[in-house]
Design goal:
Elements lengths: L14 E2 L11 E2 L2 E5 L3 E5 L8 E6 L3 E8 L2 E6 L5 E5 L3 E3 L6 E3 L3 E4 L11 E4 L3 E2 L3 E3 L2 E4 L2 E4 L3 E3 L7 H7 L10 E2 L2 E2 L1 H11 L8 H7 L2 E2 L12 E4 L2 E5 L4 E6 L4 E6 H11 L4 E6 L9
Parallel strand pairs: 1-2
Antiparallel strand pairs: 3-6, 3-9, 4-5, 6-7, 7-8, 10-13, 10-17, 11-12, 14-15, 15-16, 18-19, 20-25, 21-22, 21-25, 22-23, 23-24
GO molecular function: cysteine-type peptidase activity
Pfam families: NLPC_P60 (PF00877), SH3_16 (PF18348)
Family: Belongs to the peptidase C40 family.
Length: 287
């Protein structure tokens, strides 16, 4: 099969060393480990602020850096393999590795363990932190302090990924969005599954190929957590009849009857449902 350009660090002038013999390029490099050092950063398909956002990287995300030039870093995200251009100043060293993850929808980074101090940054659900100590109710990190009650050690999971999606109702729709400031359809699914300890590709077509088992196409016998796919869109069932999805109709993460969404999407946008898929009950079962 042809290589997916979204997941392939290859250009005519430069490619990842692991691709030697598979692609043609003037130069091959192994890449260097780095980590996202800002609350979030847009990953674009071209090194220009006018280029569309394919996805977002968030604080603590590991990346492989292949080139930094003219204010942009050409990278591959480790957690889902996506390739693109981040702002070069959004990256820091790979170490120390994160120890905790933000579990609140949103929290703040303070200069001191004091909620009355003006915050330095906003951090969203899923951001990863390297904690170096504690001070009262706060965790100490390199750039300040975060309220401990808004975080949990890495490895802590929320198995009800549909419940995580429900917490995000009302989040604005953002093409390429992957944070609680803005989400697209597949970004919502990816974030919720990753917080449940499940690996998940980034885009809807990738998710449709990789996740779960195919269910009957008549939309019968659905249950909480089932994923409904269209060509270019995905939503998640909250029960047998209601769908939650980030969508451009509501311009937000919204809940609606599945039949309502199916009829509107058929008439106005992505056409018919292409498949329904059910994930195993536990990640160890092959999610």
């Amino acid at each position: 099969m042809p290589l997916d350009p979204r997941l392939t660090p290859a250009r005519p002038d430069l490619a990842g060393l692991a691709l030697r013999g598979e692609v043609e390029a003037a130069r091959f490099v192994a890449g260097e480990p780095r980590r996202v050092a800002v609350p979030s950063a847009p990953l674009r398909r071209a090194p220009s602020p006018e280029s569309g956002i394919d996805t977002e990287a968030v604080l603590g995300d590991a990346v492989t850096l292949y080139e930094a030039r003219d204010g942009f870093a050409w990278v591959q995200l480790v957690h889902d393999g996506y390739v693109g251009y981040l702002p070069a100043d959004s990256l820091g060293p790979a170490d120390p590795a994160p120890t905790h993850r933000v579990t609140a929808l949103r929290t703040f980074l303070y200069p001191a363990p004091d909620l009355k101090r003006p915050p330095r940054a906003y951090l969203g659900l899923g951001a990863a932190l390297a904690v170096t100590g504690t001070d009262g109710d706060y965790l100490k990190v390199a750039d300040g302090y975060v309220f401990a009650g808004h975080c949990a050690p890495l490895g802590t999971v929320e198995p009800d990924f549909a419940g995580t999606a429900e917490r995000l109702v009302g989040t604005p729709y953002l093409w390429g969005g992957r944070t609680t400031l803005g989400l697209d359809c597949s970004g919502l699914v990816q974030l919720c599954l990753e917080l449940a300890g499940r690996t998940c590709p980034r885009d809807a077509d990738q998710q449709e190929r990789a996740l779960g088992d195919v269910l009957p196409s008549d939309l019968s016998d659905l249950r909480r957590g089932d994923l409904v796919f269209w060509r270019g869109h995905v939503g998640m069932m909250l029960d047998g009849t209601h769908l939650i999805h980030a969508n451009g109709h509501h311009m937000a993460v919204a809940v609606e009857p599945l039949r309502t969404a199916v009829a509107r999407i058929l008439a106005k946008s992505y056409g018919p449902v292409t498949s329904v898929r059910r994930l195993p009950l536990t990640p160890s079962a092959g999610a």
